[in-house]
## 1
Amino acid sequence: MALIDAPPLTPLPPAPALLSVSDLEVTLFTRAGQLKAVDRLSLEVAAGETLAIVGESGCGKSISALALMRLLPEPPAKITGGSVRLAGRDLTRLSEGEMQRVRGKDLAMIFQDPMSALNPVLTVGRQIVEVIARHDPASHRAMQARALELMRKVRIPDAERRFNDYPHQLSGGMNQRIVIAMAIACQPKVLVADEPTTALDVTIQAQILDLMKELQAETGMGLIIITHDLGVVAETADRVLVMYAGRKVEDGTVDAVFDRPLHPYTRGLMGATPSATLQPHGRLAEIPGSVPALADLPAGCAFNNRCPIAFARCFAERPGLTMPAPARSVACFAVEQEGVRHGDPVGA
Amino acid sequence: MRRILLRRFAQIIPLILGVIVLNFALIQMSPGSFLDVMTAEQQVSDPAMIERMRVLYGMDKPVIIQLLKYIWSVLTLDFGYSYRQNETVLAVIMQALPATVILMLASIAIALLVGVLAGVVAAVKVNTLWDNLISVGAVFFFAAPTFWLGIMLMIVFSVRLGWLPVGGMRDIGVDHGVIGIALDVMRHLALPALSLGLFYAAMYTRVMRASMLEVFRHDFVRTARAKGLSGAQVVVRHVFRNALLPVVTLLGLQLGTVLGGSVVIETVFSWPDIGSLMLDSVMSRNYPVVLGVLVLSSLIVAVANALVDIAYFRLDPRIRAR
Ligand SMILES: Nc1ncnc2c1ncn2[C@@H]1O[C@H](COP(=O)(O)OP(=O)(O)O)[C@@H](O)[C@H]1O
Ligand SMILES: [Mg+2]
């Protein structure tokens, strides 16, 4: 019936993003009142694309990632608005039971500290088998074979022997590979990695990132990498989203943002160096002051107390996102007013 | 594993020697001997007679000789002779031992089952009505004196309802083969085991609840949820086993006290036991029996410790690595 009714020659609308988050809002219900840990966050990730989320510690990156997975610590945190559409389905409206069938299958996550992310009393092999058994059950032998295959894929040397090892017998890098194997076991559409390399040695960091990019190229999954490290952004991401105090303050392609960071916070993160891309493993530069606690955000722009160019309006109103260029957005009154001049390359 | 057990068993010998020496010293320091009690009870006043008994029981020898002789005989499993029961100490203890062990094991089993279950439910439903009810129950059973609990249970189930016997371990005249005797013992066992079991269960509940809540905070629980596991799968496969270790520790401590843990309840339910044997022996200065029970206790403590080690070893692979 649908075939007959459908007008055959109407042009198709542009393919919707694989993951599309709009106006996501996470509220912390605390004694100090209701705090917006994530405030109207919107983002999109297409298949095969990598989005980096950067910001100092406490900006709400992890809370955002956990909100996508519906794994927020409840209480105190709760999704209080917005939608998370994965392949068209709004995850915020799913029941917990339905969400369980999405987690680990369509949407997977990797955490910061691989040494604590695995259960110490189960063998790593069994922990990989577990996720296969959950979403794609088969005979025990078949699932074991698949888990072994995954271990080889994430380059665990001597996988057969390591299969029956416990997490404490493996190094941090090896454990993170196991976590990655678990995450990609059921070919997720989107993988969220919350600071996947922060806890690892520099040499291991590069290996893990390479591995993730390689797996992405193979499966075409969308990737969200949360990081402190601008080097990671430059090396791995297609687009970057800068967060401050629970809000998106700037986003755009990596090239555009690194060439012309617009928001003073982004500029601050990149430091006064002529080009942050010249320092592939540069940590975020120190900005004087620190991220304000959610309970006492300043009135107006949350960054006003640290901003070198704040003016009267910044202390009175909160800037909304504007689009100074296609596929580019920024929330800053100075940019709105001064436009191009302020958008000059850092240090120029 | 074998190394751990060997180490444990190597510890038993000095432990038991220590127990013997310490108790021997305590007994020597306390005034009066069983001869005083015995002669008083039987109104023997002839000094020659008393002297002859002193020699008979080896009490004329120096203390150190008495001690060495005792140690030697313990090593040959000879705990001496109890004049009061006119039997060897081993036989006297062995008569009282099964009843005590049955009661303690039954109550520990009840405690483990009830306590672990209640602790898991309270932790999973933390800060809800269920959690509160369980916590209040735990405080109640922990705070209520066990003898009071025993008497209350007795009033309800034995006196009012008449379902269960008031005390003792067996009905006189019941003899329908092994099964009949077992059923009869179980009927008598129910109330004392329940009174003790609920008291211990309160401890297990609190330990298990706290331990579960602690494990819930670990990162790997979040990983397990991120895999898409259901709440029950997360609890059973990932939280429960990690949360068991403190319970095992408590269990080990408790297993070590099986011989002394139940005196009050045994008295309330007139359960034949080692507690009253011990009391009687102390009162009558029947030191061979006292020493025998203490040596046995230390053996049980050592075995309980070994069992805990094995359980730890099985539960936690990180311990295996050490
Ligand atoms: N369980 C929690 N209870 C209360 N506040 C929390 C909790 N988790 C995070 N927060 C607060 O939410 C904010 C964002 O935290 P987070 O997302 O972890 O930051 P990031 O990952 O960017 O470092 C912080 O201000 C933090 O204090
Ligand atoms: Mg974080």
## 2
Amino acid sequence: MDTEVSFSTPNLVEEHSDALARHNSDGGYSLIDYYAENRREEPFTLVNPPHRKTLTRTESIQSLKKSRTSLERVQSKIGESIHQEPNRLNAILASDRDRYGFRKSNHYVKIEDYDEWWTRYSQYLSRRKKKWEKLMAKNGLLVAKKGSPTRFPARSEELRRYVRKGIPAEWRGDAWFYFAKGYDKLKDNKGVYDKLVDETMNLINENTEAIEKDLHRTFPENVHFNDITRNGVTEESPLLQTLRRVLKCFSKYRPSIGYCQSLNFIAGLLLVFLDEERAFWMLVIVTERYLPGIHEFNLEGVNVHQGVLMLCLRQYLPNVWALINESSHSNNNSFLYELPTLSFCTTSWFMSIFVGVLPIETTLRVWDCLFYEESKAIFQVSLTIFKLLEPQMLDLSHKRSEDDGILSAELFQMIQNAPKRLLDANALMEECFRFSSFSKLSQEEILNCKKYVIESRSRYNELIKRRSAVGMDEQERKELMRTAVLLENKQIGLKSMNWNGRLNSRMRRIQQRIR
Amino acid sequence: MSKQTSVKLVLLGEAAVGKSSLVLRFVSNDFQENKEPTIGAAFLTQRCTIGTKTIKFEIWDTAGQERFANLAPLYYRNAQAALVVYDVTKPASFIKARHWVKELHEQASKNIVIALVGNKYDLVVDPETGEEIEGRRSVSVEEGKALADEEGLLFFETSAKSAFNVNEVFTAIGKQIPEETSKPQDEPSSVGRIDLNAPVDESGGAGNCAC
Ligand SMILES: Nc1nc2c(ncn2[C@@H]2O[C@H](COP(=O)(O)OP(=O)(O)OP(=O)(O)O)[C@@H](O)[C@H]2O)c(=O)[nH]1
Ligand SMILES: [Mg+2]
């Protein structure tokens, strides 16, 4: 029989239950007050934020121990607020923060709109939670009242449907970790993380400097990521100290990636739902299994994924594709090498997995699907966003400027800004997995596309290398590529082409034309 | 009716020098103490009236980390103007700026207008007196000027935080753009139109900038 252990109810919660009771009894959502109350119990010894000071090894270990305890506190605090009973969800209405500590409103979402949506969504959440509890019970998995399961039912159509409708927030971290096979990773790497923490404690290099630049720029609109200043003394947010350690350890563990901007957002959001060590391994899993190559030093993985997205758009949303495609030859694949201008807007969809692109609750729903269904979910969600925007895009299409074939500014703005207003996660997910032509898109299809794009792009890069040998300029290179792509589409493989013979004479003709 | 032209402008420079903050100041007259790093690129527009000319800036704000440089050629293709930004307190960012200028001259369109911008000027002056505090800056005005003269660039020191010189940069670029290279637009009705895709409570974005 499976008995469930919970991670989110460590002793620390008990220790602070007094403060919690106080903050719950006044009915308001007051994570911030609770935070302040907890902090008051700690003596202030640090005048400077820890990262400004070079610590000796003993000092470092002490400060590490100290901040790990504070981290557990932060986590139990976030956990506690996520764990609030359904009627407590109303407390969010009275606050300017959501249940994770993010500001509810921003440039794109008005607080009234958030509250209106939340009123409905919070009821949906408690209905789903009950269904999940039944599902768990049916599978012999008991979950303690305020606990979180560390095991989930075996994969099935039913479970997939449940995941698509959203994992309860209080179980989210555990579910992600379980579906992503995090426990295997953890088992194979006992003690590795602690060792990394030790090794990177006083590490200073290019990566750690880049990490420092981004630390305070990670979720500044979330209260847990803000430093605390009282009586003129500023203490660094414990969550940021943790984020620093996770990112530093990662940069050491994966030198081919090091630190890449956007990892701060992924690791930061993971830390809201997982403890430090599991968040670290999850970050490893995300970069090696779900988004391979995306954060590597040359960012070629970004181009490859964008290429796959473009292939998907051409296949499933031909009207959108007609607007985006800038290639003059309608049926060649040159867009795989020279990505359409629009791909600037979608870079962050892959790199930050929609963090900052979609509202936070919507992002979390996408992450639920991603960790259960593999990377195809990212493509399906991207396609859904375009599908939802299609009518507006077509409206704007007449604005496409004729002189250079570049999409109009309005179109870019829409593609960049409209997703930030997609609060209604249910509508997005239903469109994605129930009503769309790409709801059945398989991971295998995505992998095949990826292979194709990788091969096409490496052939192209090979040509560029030779180009520098022959001394062509940019203009000539482009001409050559277009020619090569046209030839390729006529089933004349580039491999069988003789560079010195046929292609050279073709180049001469092109050069004459240019002149 | 004034003549409207649109100008594609790209911002380049090391991470955290304040590219996004300069744009935020120019477009929304706002400043954020901790601004999130830009992933890939962000796109914004702002209209400006300079004399009888109305210019619509189409601004591409790019990511600063070194590895994103691989995507940069996509951003500056067809750009008519560029802001190469460094942080006056960070010498490494000035070296990076030098590289960007070189790359633009080699790769971007021939008549691109480039402005060299030393940002975070507020960090080197006393807020009370406005006088420079000794030892605060790492890149001298002379160094900046010398690079600008050498390479034929506009040069400004700015502060996105205090708004010092920010509009001036864009105005100067607007003045420098030759009429024939900017794309003429025959949609006079769009001037001053409310942009439905602009952020909801952003007052500056949809209107005209008072350059
Ligand atoms: N004191 C001061 N701080 C500034 C100024 N401009 C920007 N900053 C701060 O510097 C940090 C980085 O600013 P950003 O505008 O995000 O820098 P960026 O160049 O866009 O950075 P990336 O997107 O990572 O390339 C933020 O925390 C800003 O608040 C300035 O003029 N003065
Ligand atoms: Mg930026």
## 3
Amino acid sequence: MFATVTLALFKGFLGTLKLFSLTLLFSLPLGLLISFGSMSKTAILRLPIRLIIWIIRGTPLMLQLLIIFYGPGIFLGRNIWGSGDSGRFTAALTAFVINYACYFSEIFRGGIQSIPKGQYEAAQVLGLSRTQTFFRIILLQVIKRIVPPISNEVITLVKDTSLARVIAFYEIIWEGERFIKSSGIIWPLFYTGVFYLLFSGLLTLLFGYIEKKLDYFK
Amino acid sequence: MPILEVNNLKKSFDGDSILKGISFDMEKGQTLSILGSSGSGKTTLLRCLNFLEMADDGRIKVNGETLFDGMKTSFSENELRDKRRHFGMVFQQFNLFPQYTALENVTLAPRLANPSKDKIDIERESRMLLTKMGLPDKLNHYPHQLSGGQQQRVAIARALALKPDILCFDEPTSALDPELTGEVLKVIKELALQHTTMIIVTHEIPFARDVSDQIIFLDRGVIAEKGTPSQVIDSPTNERTQKFLANY
Ligand SMILES: Nc1ncnc2c1ncn2[C@@H]1O[C@H](COP(=O)(O)OP(=O)(O)OP(=O)(O)O)[C@@H](O)[C@H]1O
Ligand SMILES: [Mg+2]
């Protein structure tokens, strides 16, 4: 039994991992773009972006998942997500990417805006271009400042992936829960907790390592 | 020909006139100090010269080349970089880049400015500058490992590395503990003796008298008094200058 459960949970955990890693892959760069938009001097760019961020951060991810999954079918009259498991996955990923990109963008914005004006001015009088200033001077200082909040979000994301089950995306808890019905045992659910704990423990170590690596400057 | 000619330079912020027509010039190799009470516009003047702020009107010429003439007040990034190249700037708060060592802070801009130049040469020159600043043993220290006085000397080396025509200082010792100002003033004096062209905004009156060829006393956006140190500091004729100096 233990082996069967382990195997099933691993299968579920692969789904969790896939959603987790692809969400990070797309939402981090998208978040950076959104943060630039939200700091733009052009109001027609900045205001709509701020509005979207406000909506996304102000409503539950669960709700966003449902709307993104069912919305197109109801409003457009057709399912844009494709059918079956892969369709549900795409919908879930889309919702997660949008949601997390908005959270990340606020972290990026806070980090970028916390860099003292003097750093930009020093770069300017030294003749650095804006791109050089961003990549050579600002970026690493921003990264150093945002590693702790990003690490919090990433660990939250590990757990948030379980929300995707509302649109029947098979992840680890879904797999664990099946054993209640099929075999009348609950310990597989506790077992899923072990997966989460180990994985978030690993991430905590990884972020701790990055923080330490960036400790060489203040 | 003067190295720098400033003519009727004006700048206001939100309708507040901060510089009300500043005119002066200076010769190559000279040191000019700017004195004045808080809010008189000293920083604004330096920032206009460096194009960190855009003046509203007037003229700025370096080596006979007009950098600003009031006709055009918006420039492309490249134009601005060309104009700024003439000036170096040392800030009150040092503004070193924290993620780079002292040496990297100095080499960064020259490396980016001359990608074709040999890195070894740039590094050698930078080491020499830091040695000249009395920091031969701090090359690989990060800014947070240095005292304020040492950081400011790295900042001076960093500005010198680009060989600006004119090096500007905005109260280079105001952020320092009193026991650290001496070491920074000493290297600035050293530079003056070697005829580095410098504009120094400072509240260190005895120092200004000691190193300057010319002193300007700025009062509420106008030059109230201008002359040699002995003229301005020892026998000021302007009432505001007299009052200001009496407080020191
Ligand atoms: N970016 C700005 N926007 C609005 N007002 C400004 C700006 N920069 C400077 N000022 C105003 O211009 C005036 C002169 O400021 P400035 O910093 O040039 O004075 P200062 O002579 O350098 O004074 P201090 O000795 O205190 O450094 C001040 O009243 C200041 O509030
Ligand atoms: Mg000032």
